[in-house]
Design brief:
7% strand, Transposase, 2 strands, 85 residues, DNA-binding, elongated
């Protein structure tokens, strides 16, 4: 947190529960064993690495916050870039 503050950023805490089981495209949840590394959504057909899907879900949770409001996680003009998303 102190490193983020030094860089003019802030840390947003996110509950990681179900982030690797939820589809980041449509929200469908499907429990899978940890050895399954590719997430293929049976509902919308999204195909992602499990860790990438979890990262996208965590980022989405950080943007919406627990009460539904959108926190300003990044200083104005410094939004994150989505490589190939």
């Amino acid at each position: 947190a102190y490193k983020a503050e030094e860089a003019g950023r802030r840390v947003v805490g996110v509950d990681p529960k179900h982030t690797s089981q939820d589809c980041p495209v449509c929200g469908h949840r499907e429990k899978r064993p940890l050895w399954v590394r590719v997430y293929t959504c049976p509902q919308c057909g999204a195909l992602l690495h499990r860790d990438v899907a979890a990262a996208q879900n965590i980022l989405a949770k950080a943007w919406t916050g627990p009460s539904g409001e959108t926190p300003r996680a990044f200083p104005q003009g410094n939004t994150p870039r989505s490589p190939g998303l």
